[in-house]
Amino acid sequence: MFTSPLFSRLRRRLRPATAAVALACAVSALTGTGTAHATPEHVWEDLAACESSGNWRARTGNGFYGGLQFTPSTWREHGGTRFAARADLASPAEQISVAKRVLRRQGWGAWPVCSRRLAPKARAAARHPVPAIPHTPAARGTYRVQPGDTLHHVATTHRAPGGWRALYTINRGVIGHPDMIYPGQILRLR
Predict the structure, then answer these.
(1) pLDDT for residue 19 is more than 80
(2) Which residues are paired to 188 by β-bridges?
(3) What per-residue confidence (pLDDT) applies to 29?
(4) Which residue has the higher pLDDT, 93 or 141?
(5) Mean pLDDT, to the nearest integer, of 117-135?
(6) Half-sphere exposure of 60 (CA within 13 A, CB side)
């Protein structure tokens, strides 16, 4: 097949942009939604492996901190200071919680180099999607967490007295952290 030099140059220029878009699409396909809440945890682990060699306590002196390499302003603007003063002082779960907020506002472009590197792996995973949780009714007064759910959404939808904070309190043993609920978990509503 003949390709012109102009076409070859154009293809090389478009490849990085295509990879970033492909990562976003693949992650969306993996989760079945476009929300950051449902992003599989292994994606964040892979991103941290790329950004900081998996060192969640990274503080290299370049102005970026933690496993996902937050700037102090991004950490602060996305609520990270409720966990710790800097990202490298927060747990991996807390860093992921903030990263999900960053993802919702900025998209995968917040991690431009590593999101392009991870795009082929995410595309491959999208070809073998995680099966959906069957929607079997939970016992009366309980709720089975579905992909994309947040405590706030569950509390609002089911009119839980006291809102998401009360829901978190009565399910603390199941949840662990209010920003980290997983599909399939059974939550008590009252």
Answers:
(1) no
(2) 142
(3) 39
(4) 93
(5) 55
(6) 14
Q: How does the average pLDDT of the chain come out, rounded?
A: 75
CA dihedral 85, 100, 181, 88 (to 10 degrees): -30
Beta bridge partners of 103: none
pLDDT of residue 15: 46
Residues 97 and 177: beta-carbon distance below 8 Å: yes
Per-residue pLDDT of 23-51, as tens digits, reads 444 444 333 334 444 566 778 888 999 99
Is the separation of the CB atoms in 78 and 102 below 8 Å? yes
Q: Which amino acid is at 180?
A: M
Beta bridge partners of 187: 143
Distance CA 137, CA 189 (A): 14
Count H helices, E strands: the chain? 8, 2
Distances in Å between the Cα of 31 and the Cα atoms of 53, 121, 170 are 25, 15, 27
Quickly list DSSP for 32-94: TSS-GGG--HHHHHHHHHHHHTT-TT-B-SSS-BTTTTB-HHHHHHTTGGGT-SSGGGS-HHH
Q: SS3 breakdown of the chain: % helix, strand, coil, rounded to 5?
A: 55, 5, 40
Q: Could you identify the residue written with the tokens 């978190």? A: 168
Q: Name the residue with higher pLDDT: 69 or 110.
A: 69
Element (H, E) at 145: none
Nearest to 97 by CA among 71, 75, 112, 130: 75
What's this model's pTM, rounded to 2 decimal places? Answer: 0.48
